[in-house]
Amino acid sequence: MFEALSEKLGSIFKKLKGRGLLREEDLTAALKEIKIALLEADVNFKVVKDFIERVKARAIGKEVIESITPGHQVVKIVHDELCSLMGGEDNLSLSQRKIHLSPNPPTVIMLVGLHGSGKTTTAAKLAKGFKKDGRRPLLVAIDTARPAAIEQLISLGSQINVPVYGTKAGDSPVRVCSDAIKKAHSEGWDVVILDTAGRLHIDEELMKELDDVKAAANPKEILLVADAMTGQDAVNIAKSFNDRLNIGGVILTKMDGDARGGAALSIVAATGKPIKFIGVGEKIDLLEPFHPERMASRILEMGDIVSLVEKAQEAIGMEDAIKLQKKLKEDRFTFEDLKDQIKQIKKMGSLENLFGMIPGLGKHISRSVGTVDEKEFIKIEAIINSMTKKERESYAIINGSRKRRIALGSGTTVADVNRLIKQYLEMKKMLRMFKGGKGPGLNKFKFPDLNFFRGRS
Amino acid sequence: MGLFERLKQGLSKTKKNLVEKAEVLFLGRNVDESLLNELEEVLIMADVGPKASAEIISTLKEKFKKGELSDTVGLKNALKEEIKLAIQDGSGIKITKERPYIILTVGVNGVGKTTTIGKLAWRFKNEGLKVILAAGDTFRAAAIEQLEIWAHRSDTQIIKHKSGADPAAVVYDAIMSAKAKNMDAVIIDTAGRLHTKTNLMDELKKIKRVINREIPSAPHEVLLVVDATSGQNVIHQAKIFGEAIGVTGIALTKLDGTAKGGIVIAIKKELNIPVKLISVGERIEDLRDFNAEEFVGALFG
Ligand SMILES: Nc1nc2c(ncn2[C@@H]2O[C@H](COP(=O)(O)OP(=O)(O)OP(=O)(O)O)[C@@H](O)[C@H]2O)c(=O)[nH]1
Ligand SMILES: [Mg+2]
User: Does B13 contact chain A (CB < 8 Å)?
Assistant: First the structure.
């Protein structure tokens, strides 16, 4: 079984880091491993080849050989090249990653892509985002081919209170979208999102249909919706859609899985178009902006620290975070604090997403601890609520009869209470380790609350 | 157009990419180390994956060293043999004597589970079997409606609950109904789920337990639906779904679209889960039993 790209690179660079000087044969060996790892991550073969050449050219020069820490240098070069390949800040400016709005509304946005890539879900996610921005989006179902596709969009639209224009299966997509745009004009909907049917990039007839829709709707943005799990063919797919329609950018879906992002590299390399958003779940609010830096870091197992910190700050607030840090330093973390932490984690959204962002931890967590569900939280909260103030401050006084009382009061069992205490102790232990910077790859990570769940098997 | 012809047509893109590329590569060349290395690239580009590709090529290199590959014709035949060997004993779907025969269909989001079920139901119906579809995707918007349309097209029955209902309850009802009406097969649709979501994998385990409680020998087939457009992540999918509920076969979809079918080789080589069905088009009759001989034959024209 293959390992994830970032894990492989991690182990190669650990080897490199151990040495003082980087010899050419070390570099060659490392690059060979990087090549295989990238291929296993589904980066297109040709893209990999170019990538390796570029890294080699930069690494083999004096820059590395003369440096005292060649391992670090190679890591940096690989990281930089990955960034620039995915359209790092210097290649594609941030404003290009936004969705362009047209000066005379409605702005028409057209979503295209293969079958099942996530167009319909993404259409609803975008609509929700626009609504949050104070715009008046209209969803248009022009997938008149797939069974129940229109019903799907109508159902999503009603969940977010956005109207859906769509007639019946078998209608002409061109007609439907022309009618919808007219309607948007007369009723004042300022963003029109077209959900097209899934199609193969080699299906001439259906690709022609997209030409026609484009001509009729004159979209400001055509976005290719692509699955993050796509293999070597990502290049051909992206290229075909781009050559035909001149897309404005890409939305990469299903990034909440364990796909390492090879498709992202391939698509950008093939089209030069930016990835604008990533889909990170099935729920309608799980759409995030794409950041090449973060993505490169994620691939290299540096973890998506920036996203995590941003999310945590949103939920926790600086003051609380500082207070918590202090407590941790003094080893005064109580059940009361644990309860607060859970409240905050709940505010931060899906656990899986959060775990995924923690460097060196995401993968293990999702395997062994991913079973923590929101119900588990309710239980933990109930148990803590049934403790007296004293018990919350010092777990040591919780004896057998207290445990029974707590279990009774919280509607749980003594075993549940025992488990929570055990987890709490493990967490305390982890926190101490963390403070000392001994945690595996955790030294940079400042929000130890999440580590709690690691103790659960 | 005969079935074999259609298969060939469906796979024409794959053929173009893999075989013709190899042929162009071979043109006017002698067999040597560097030709074999280039052949490895062709395999990787076809999603065979770096590991499986390296294995195939190293076998070919050994043959070459032993002097068994004198020219590119010999090389081409040897490649064909290697691929055939790797994917052999992938067999089609067979309904045994068990009644009702329970097929559980699972997979990540958007791979084509519902469509595959529709096509399979149509095929069973044509074989004279009585089929019930279970609308176990109660999560995705309009998934139930989508399956209903397929039930209608294939003229089979469907058991459904409301959107948001417990899928295990739907499955239970479908099995009860199949028993009561002496149906031959139950095909269960489930919501797409990423293999990394433990809670959703637990939901599948629960569905399997419910089936198993009602019919101890069931599910008789756990079909993992895999999108041929996806790359090596499929191996993760197959491994984790397999560990969770014991996948018995793979249905490979969208083979008409992707320029590669090489993932078939990687799946079989790495996990030994047989590919049972392949889908080479959008029409109801485009679902086919997988057959290694035929597959390689179509690949090599
Ligand atoms: N986990 C996850 N699932 C997603 C994401 N985006 C979409 N999906 C799921 O992927 C499946 C296909 O999504 P759809 O939105 O129906 O895809 P589509 O491109 O409209 O499909 P067709 O119209 O059939 O071509 C559904 O099960 C969605 O719930 C995502 O970011 N993460
Ligand atoms: Mg759709």
Answer: yes
